[in-house]
Write a structure and sequence with these properties.
Chain lengths: ~350, ~375
């Protein structure tokens, strides 16, 4: 009975502090991106050329796009491991339709998103209706969709000449020097990022992830929100498939293979807590940019990419550890602020 | 009203980590009874896949099938054993396949630089232990989430393998080849049987794991940790230490699997076992191990590994393309969580329908009384 009373004054000073802390978290990721960029440029001046910067943005864009949906899912204390397979499936199906049906360019995007959303519906429905852990469901879907994809491909790889030129242009054309791919992803990040800050249903994703029971008691339709998060994640993975096709202009059955763990890694590096409740899509996108900048920076500096996996892994561990330390510090300062109110 | 909901909220909050666990009658049944149902199902599936295999392929009932089934799946199944122990404590180790790769790569690298086979083997095991130690320190001691930590070490260990070997395959041109006694495990069965070495080692390890998990206080404490880490700690179980040593053991066993794979293939490159971590998790989960911890048996994992190996062999002999095999594995995994859950859900919703009736009347009545005031 006494529990709710001290909770209210504790949270009042906590919220702006927390917000400041989160802002710092993304700023930290961005600062690291810039630091890596500067250090690499000092060693290799070509790294700062516009072509190289475009490559950095394009290389990060697919993982960043998938990271947006993944963040929405992870924030609710779930996980979506099927994004890589979904990307592969939608990339091939769209490429195959271009080849055999000569569908219009715009419909390629629509179909890709629809395929992804359909996968998301299956993931979300099984997770929320049957109440089984999303890790298992999406792991199973990873295999099912990858198998389906390989069955469809069956050796008939989509090659550059079979994809309409207008579609491929999305993959390499730029506006004012910024690649289309990066613009599309930035728009998605901006929209979802704004929604996750502002709109109530999207804010409720954080509540669900912070404390599922409290969220349910507060009247939040958790199942519906989680379902929407999965569908969004699937739809973005589908869109990612279309962009993959536009970028590489060819698809075999290995498109998106192993992306799922890279996407989760990017989100975690960008400050998304794996157990839900905190993290932003901007952070996840910056995480993807950071990992890609390090990878390409290593190539630019050493002309050998053998080190980049090890460094990416070390960085991920460092990010988790630092987040933990910061969280502990925040918790300690919150506790000392709360100290006066607590009588136990 | 608040006096009605407050205890319910507190009770639910305790189980926060396991959202699917409403207080339900099955939790009070003895463990073997709960598990028995799932394992009986697995036995049925296994018999079914054996019948399926032998009816569809004339060469299925042969010693060759038994041997190559073990060659193909044995080293993966070996990694599933420490994985299931870790998942029972509600953690996960996604770095297993990378640890396998790192140990194999170190073995290859040292061999390439003229080391003897025994020192190289020991070094490979040591690097596995070190890898497990890092996981253990970060997860058990620092309290970081194991899924994030081991995704990090997954990348890190694979990266170390890549640094060690680069793009070369050992033994390459100009290298000594591995000793014959070492590589023969990929071509001959264990003397007196038709089983591959990996199969026999898997069986031995499974027996050890089974005894530890099901017949020792340590094993019981793993379930306690998985179900309620806080309560386990207050009951005097050394949660941190046990989790730490589980990760170390996992590193050691995965390094051992890396050695076995190297011997089987007579060669090693940095990407040995690439991407197998999710297969290993799938085997453990299909074996009835709950991803939320506290549930699962070694016999279930053994059955699940056997089913996967059987189906793979059957489908390969029927020249069904490997991609369809992936679909089958995925569907099995999905069924393995959905079917038990639907039964549970039906029972649970029936129970809730009974309970919620009086509660609902309170809820609808409350605003009225407020309004009349």
């Amino acid at each position: 009975m006494t529990a709710p009373a001290p909770a209210a004054p504790v949270q009042a000073p906590g919220i702006p502090r927390m917000a400041r802390f989160l802002r710092v978290r993304e700023a930290g990721t961005l600062a690291l991106v810039l630091l890596v960029f500067l250090l690499t440029t000092l060693k290799n001046h070509n790294f700062a050329s516009s072509g190289s910067i475009q490559q950095l943005l394009v290389g990060a864009s697919l993982i960043a796009l998938l990271g947006v949906g993944e963040t929405m899912v992870i924030v609710t204390r779930n996980i979506d491991l099927s994004v890589g397979s979904t990307l592969g499936l939608s990339a091939f199906v769209v490429g195959d339709l271009f080849r055999s049906q000569h569908i219009p360019v715009w419909s390629g995007f629509v179909i890709a998103i629809a395929i992804g959303a359909a996968v998301g519906v299956v993931n979300g429905a099984i997770t929320t209706l049957v109440r089984v852990p999303s890790l298992v469901v999406t792991l199973a879907m990873l295999y099912i969709i990858r198998g389906l994809d390989s069955k469809l491909v069956n050796g008939s790889i989509v090659v550059p000449g079979q994809v309409p030129h207008a579609f491929i242009e999305v993959g390499y054309q730029t506006v004012l020097g910024i690649p289309w791919l990066a613009i599309i992803v930035a728009v998605v990040v901006a929209i979802v990022g704004y929604a996750m800050r502002t709109f109530r249903p999207a804010r409720e994703l954080y509540a669900i992830g912070s404390n599922p029971d409290a969220a349910a008691l507060a009247g939040i339709p958790s199942a519906r929100r989680v379902f929407v998060a999965f569908v969004t994640s699937g739809a973005l993975a589908g869109l990612g498939g279309a962009l993959f096709l536009a970028l590489f202009a060819q698809v075999d059955n290995s498109a998106g293979l192993g992306y799922e763990l890279n996407v989760v890694a990017a989100a975690v590096v960008g400050g998304v807590a794996i157990f839900g409740g905190s993290g932003t899509v901007v952070g996840a996108a910056l995480g993807a940019l950071l990992l890609n900048t390090i990878q390409q920076g290593l190539v630019a500096v050493r002309s050998s990419s053998f080190w980049d996996e090890a460094i990416a892994g070390g960085l991920l561990l460092a990010a988790i550890s630092i987040d933990r330390l910061l969280a502990l510090r925040v918790a300690r300062s919150l506790r000392s602020a709360e100290g006066a109110h607590r009588e136990l | 009203m608040s006096s009605e909901t407050a205890p319910a909220a507190a009770g639910a909050g305790m189980q926060g980590a396991r959202p699917e666990a409403p207080a339900e009658p099955t939790a009070r049944q003895p463990l073997w009874q709960q598990a028995a149902r799932w394992e009986v199902g697995l036995v049925v599936v296994l018999i079914g896949s054996l019948i399926f295999g032998s009816s569809e392929s004339s060469t299925f009932d042969s010693q060759t099938t038994l041997f190559y089934g073990g060659i193909n799946a044995g080293y993966i199944a070996i990694m599933a054993l420490p994985m299931m122990l870790i998942v029972v404590t509600a953690e996960i180790d996604l770095s297993v396949a990378s640890t396998l790769g790192m140990a194999g790569a170190l073995l290859g690298d040292l061999w390439h630089h003229g080391w003897g086979i025994w020192p190289a083997l020991i070094a490979a095991l040591v690097v596995g232990v070190l890898g497990g130690t890092l996981n253990g320190v970060l997860v058990a001691k620092a309290g970081l989430p194991s899924i994030a930590v081991t995704i990090g070490t997954l990348t890190l260990y694979r990266g170390i393998a890549e640094i060690l070997l680069g793009s070369q395959t050992i033994p390459g041109v100009g290298d000594r080849s591995f000793p014959v006694w070492f590589t023969k495990i990929g071509v001959v069965p264990v003397p007196g049987t038709h089983l591959s070495y990996t199969t026999v080692i898997f069986i031995v390890l499974a027996i050890i794991c089974g005894v530890v998990l099901h017949a020792t206080p340590l094993g019981r404490s793993l379930y306690a940790i998985g179900l309620q880490p806080e309560a386990a700690r207050f009951a005097g179980i050394r949660v941190t230490r046990i989790k730490f040593w589980l990760f170390v053991a996992s590193g050691l066993i995965c390094a051992f699997a890396g050695i076995l794979l190297t011997a089987q293939n007579s060669s090693v490159s940095y990407n040995a076992g690439y991407g197998l971590e999710l297969n290993v998790v799938a085997i453990a989960l299909f074996g009835g191990v709950s991803i939320f911890g506290g549930k699962g048996t070694v016999i279930g994992v053994v059955l699940s590994a056997t089913i996967v190996a059987t189906l793979q062999m059957a489908m390969t002999q029927m020249t069904i393309d490997p991609n369809v095999q992936e679909i089958v594995i995925g569907v099995l995994l999905l069924i393995s969580v959905v079917v038990p859950s639907i039964g549970k859900l039906a029972r649970w919703s029936a129970a809730r329908a009974l309970r919620s009736r009086p509660l609902q009347s309170v809820r609808t009545a409350l605003p009225l009384t407020v309004r009349t005031k």
